[in-house]
Amino acid sequence: MGLAAAATARSLLTLPAQDAPPLYAAIVADDLTGAGDTAIQFVRAGWATHLAVGEAGAGPGDLGAHGAEVLAVATHSRALPPTRAAAVVERQVARLREAGASRLYKKIDSTLRGPIRAEVDAARAAWRADAIAVVCPAFPATGRVVQDGILRVDGVPVAQTSAGTDPVTPVVESHVPTLLEAAHVAIARGESPAALAARIEAAGAVVAVDAASAGELELLARALGLLGERALPVGSGGLAEPLARVWAEGATGGPVVAVVTSQHRGARLQARAWREWGARVRMPALETLADPRAWKDWAQDVRRTEAGRPVGAGEPDAILLLAPEGRLAGLDSDAIAARLGSLAGALVADLRATGAIATGGDGARELLKALRATGIALVGEVAGGVPMGTLVGGTAPGLPVVTKAGGFGDEDVLVRAAKAIRERRFKR
Fold it and tell me: Which of 5, 311, 319, 403 lies in the 20 to 30 Å Cα band around 302?
């Protein structure tokens, strides 16, 4: 065994300890820097991610100390002969599967250097019998795009760039389907993720897919999400970025619950954009809010309807409680906020909500009161003046929550807030 192969064998994973937390996803890269630039995409999406380096902390058995949900490992196989590279990758993937990983991302060089075909075939064989390797090395942000199956770097076929004269791993083929003996799928204009997923599934066991923009990579990532565990994404950091968000969304629970108590015109336009997005809006009449018995019946109907809604009903899984416009004698804004905030809190509990959004300070106060939260641990912003955090204390600790004033944000800010909650991994 050569020195490179021996070093690789020493860094292979050991079996996890009995009390180690199960992995959600694993990244297998052919070198350490590739493992790192891919792993950071999962960090940005909120995943607790650990990059294994050599023998130190390389095994899933050590993950209890790190609390990692995603493990990135390097096989150091880019310069190995194809048969040795395949053996290293196959053993590594099998170990990760045994350790409990339910998703796998095979990182390859964005300029196709190394024994890529051998590694892809080995990873697919070790992952599962019905695995579909979906290959797209595109990384538009760094000038790498795939069009008509050809990988181009800044407009030049990759084999005609410096990668073609690499002294260790020269690239001799720019056409990805030819390099891999794979089927080829080009994304159609206006295609849905479901339609793309169906075409990929029908194409074969190894499928090369075009992508020339961030939008096309996003579409491909969503198609991969629909294919589930049998999908084996193969790519660079470019595909990893949207895929980390899609996998985070797939790991979430119930709907996003939003409450809008503000009468500001901007808030009403944002609620309209929410409805146009296809999400649900429930708005009681002023008279219903003013009558305790009518309100009780209305609120119970909302809770019953939402609890009985089938999972995956073909629309964004999000509901907005909207205060009606206007005023009614004997009904003040505090009473409206108290009723809607309390109902939003009940829906969070009933539906095991993924997160909550509150527009209007009074509504936000009442929502937090209903959930008995003592504070919000801030983690970032959806937009300027629209903070996002997680609840501290109460009945839903760790619940992602976005709060904002009625007049803040563009018309799509509520939709963006819901997506930000769903596409980020929050540990609760």
Answer: 403
